[in-house]
Amino acid sequence: MNVAVIMAGGAGTRFWPKSTKEKPKQFLKLFGKKSLIQQTVERLRGFIDEKNVMVITNNDYVHLVNQQLPGLEQKYIIGEPLARNTAPCIASAAALLYNENPDAVMVVLPADHRITEPKRFLEVLQVASKTASEQNSLVTIGIEPNRPETGYGYIRREANPDVHFDGQDVYRVKNFTEKPELARARDFLKSGDYLWNSGIFVWKVETIVKAFRQHLPEIFEQMERLAGSDKNEEHINAFYEGCPSISIDYGIMEKAENVHVVPASFGWNDVGSWKAVHELADKDENGNAIGDSTVILQEASGNLVDASSGKTIALVGVNNIAIVETEDAILVVNLDQAQGVKQVVDEIDRLAETE
Questions:
Q1: Which of 43, 177, 232, 294 could serve as 154's disulfide partner, Cβ 3.0–4.6 Å?
Q2: pLDDT digits (tens, 9 = 90+) for 292-303
């Protein structure tokens, strides 16, 4: 049995003003008529039944998950009382699943990624699932890089494949590297040994439980308590309160020896900024992405406009900017500096605290 564990707890601060603390990025319709989390569940169809989809989210967003994904089993919608990073998130899912089926294969993935080749994506998951089942290993999906990207972590694979499934080579992982400087990223790309870390993982429940026992015993103790409880809200809250905040990469993946990577390319993007939205959106002949907004363009190129007020927006002689409008805020940002939107949110929060 395959089970999806969708991590949907992020605040999405880089997508202000559309994304707010009340409704973060994963619940927004940035591409088409469905939100990112709805698209994440939809692309799993044919590989994982909706009744086997678990969503781990912030307590404040449980109602949004229920609204947008009404077909999910209520027992598989878990609200986190505290933000504790990805290791406790994954540990809670494994503890809840262990008594049901320790041989089940968990497909762990973020709620807010964009994948434009879903058929190829499912083929890769099939290979990863076979590897996890037959090799009892921790499997990650590595994206074939096409540029020296400094915003992603990297996975270095061994020179030769370890196993081969369905026409796909699978490699043992040599090491993980955090986001590199540009010069190092160029070296990674040139070597051909490195892949982008997608943050998508596949493993058997039993395998990841053993990894927690070995590498994160403090969290494993909390997993044992949760697995032996009736798993109500009180027990889930106690689990998170007892866990340290640590990522699955740092806590387990970088330490474990039984780690495989499946190299892949399926139109993946982690949609980390308005620049990424512009890159993925439909554009006119001058590279402007305006969606349904009412826009007049004069000598303007490479811009993004996301506005729903119905006001006419005119862009004259400007390039490479994003204009994002909501009822109570307007953002104008150079697309190459779109990562700086997070600092705007931090400043808004600071001013609110001061007031």
A1: 177
A2: 889 999 999 999
Longest CA–CA separation in the chain, Å: 65
pTM to 2 decimal places: 0.93
Q: How confident is the model at residue 235 (pLDDT cuts 50, 70, 90)?
A: very high
d(CA 93, CA 246): 15
Cβ(215)–Cβ(252) below 8 Å: yes
- The per-residue pLDDT for range 91-128, each reduced to its tens digit, is 999 999 999 999 999 999 999 999 999 999 999 999 99
Peptide bond into 81 cis (omega under 30): no
What's the rounded Cα separation, in Å, for the pair 290 and 19? Answer: 18
Kindly state the average pLDDT of the residues 246-266.
Answer: 96
What is the torsion angle, in degrees rounded to the nearest 10, for the CA atoms of residue 210, residue 215, residue 220 and residue 222? Answer: -160
Rounded percentage of the chain residues whose pLDDT exceeds 70: 100
CATH of the structural domain 2-269, one choice from 1.25.40.340, 3.40.50.11540, 3.90.550.10, 3.30.2130.30: 3.90.550.10
| Residue whose pair of structure tokens reads 């969606």 in the numeric block | 291
Q: Three-state SS string across the chain, please?
A: CEEEEEEECCCCHHHCCCCCCCCCHHHCCCECCECHHHHHHHCCCCCCCHHHEEEEEEHHHHHHHHHHCCCCCHHHEEEECCCCCHHHHHHHHHHHHHCCCCCCEEEEEECCCEECCHHHHHHHHHHHHHHHHHHCCEEEEEECCCCCCCCCCEEEECCCCCEEECCEEEEEEEEEECCCCHHHHHHHHHHCCEEEEEEEEEEEHHHHHHHHHHHCHHHHHHHHHHHCCCCCHHHHHHHHHCCCCCCHHHHHHCCCCCEEEEEECCCEECCCCHHHHHHHCCCCCCCCECCCCCEEEECCECCEEECCCCCCEEEECCECEEEEECCCCEEEEEHHHHHHHHHHHHHHHHHHHHC
Give the least confident one: 40-49, 139-148, 153-162, 338-347. 338-347
